[in-house]
Amino acid sequence: MKSHRIALLFNANKIFDREVIAGVAAYLSSTRAAWDLFLEEDFRLRLAGIERWQGDGIIADFDDPAVAAALAHSGTPVVAVGGSYEDLAAYPAEVPYVATDNFKLIKMARDHLIEAGLRHFAMFSLPAAQENRWAQEREHAFRTLMEQDKMAPDIYRGVGTSAPSWDAAVDQQIKWLHGLPKPVGIIAVTDARARQLMQACIMAGIAVPEQVALIGIDNDPLARMLTRIPLSSVIQGAQQMGRTAAHLLDQMLNGVRMSGTRVLVPPVGINVLASTQHEAPKHPHVMRARHFIRQYACQGIKTHQVAEYVGISRSSLESYFRQELDCSVHDVILRFKLDAATSMLVRGERSIAEVALCCGFTSVQYMHAVFKRELGCTPRTYQDRAATGLINDGLAA
Fold first, then answer.
1. 1 band by pLDDT with thresholds 50, 70 and 90
2. Which CATH superfamily is domain 284-396 in?
3. Is 233 in contact with 220 (CB distance < 8 Å)?
4. Which of 65, 70, 71, 81 lies closest to 12, judged by CA?
5. Residue 68 and residue 62 in contact, taking contact as beta carbons nearer than 8 Å
6. Which CATH class is domain 4-100+237-265?
7. N or C: which end of the chain has fewer CB within 10 A?
8. Taking the model in full, what pTM does it have?
9. pLDDT (tens digit per residue) in 118-158
10. Minimal CA–CA distance to 41: which of 8, 81, 3?
């Protein structure tokens, strides 16, 4: 069987690009295609000398305009991967193109916020630039959906962040947040952008999700680990895009003409976590307490520490919780710890002992007892069920 030399031109420091590459790998493992893959050793995208590439095919990230320009006249078969465009003329004319459906990404995020009970919406985007064309397409989708409902679209682009501009960027984000009607649902164009806004909310004392319900796009595990409040996110069909792109290139290598082919891949669903689990507490002390608990439950906080943060007595706080939530402060702390533990067990990235430690349980035995009492099974059983697909990590289609 003939082996083909294929270049993958992506920046694998981005979760989207990594998932596309994983989809290419999945295609190769499920077929008899024999490809020798070229990627930079550090998985970064470098175009220098690409015009001298002597391989048989290329799959490339066309969201980067420099890539699209470099490959515009390539004599090597190319399959493009990138974001969708409302204007069909924006697609490359001859290159087969596999696109994430930007409109459906934003619609799924907004529908989720509507289902969470929100009535005001905004978007946190990126500065206008050629390399951010995909973000502007998501803005266009948001604007279209809002105008369909006769609502004014509030879109904030902010600035590109760097170490010198960080303080000013956060100050501007906080100013924008304070000017929004509350409660509000905000769609960020990426999880990285959502993480920034989450930090701004926490610094400004704006409760998430009671005052700001925040959802990102990418389902990036690194962004999730770097936020104090677990971040809801739309899951792109990036692996499916990688499989589709590999299939198209495989056909081209076998003589099938694919010029001008366009495939739009819809999102997979939403990983629903705490940042959009919006409820409207009637009492501000309860809202403030839950905001504190959501950030620090897994650090082993106690009821008296929550009361100190809110600035009232422990007995008064317990009374407010009983009136509004029909449970104790300890019950809410435990629920957040349990939610964090089940989410970690579903992902299968840590041992049960590590999960117990990370989620603030005093011992594995105590976590075991809580699981048996609250969920009717042990942590191991819960993890086994998740591995067989009987449980997922808050995924909403």
1. low
2. Homeodomain-like (1.10.10.60)
3. yes
4. 81
5. yes
6. alpha beta
7. N
8. 0.80
9. 999 999 999 999 999 999 999 999 999 999 999 999 999 99
10. 8
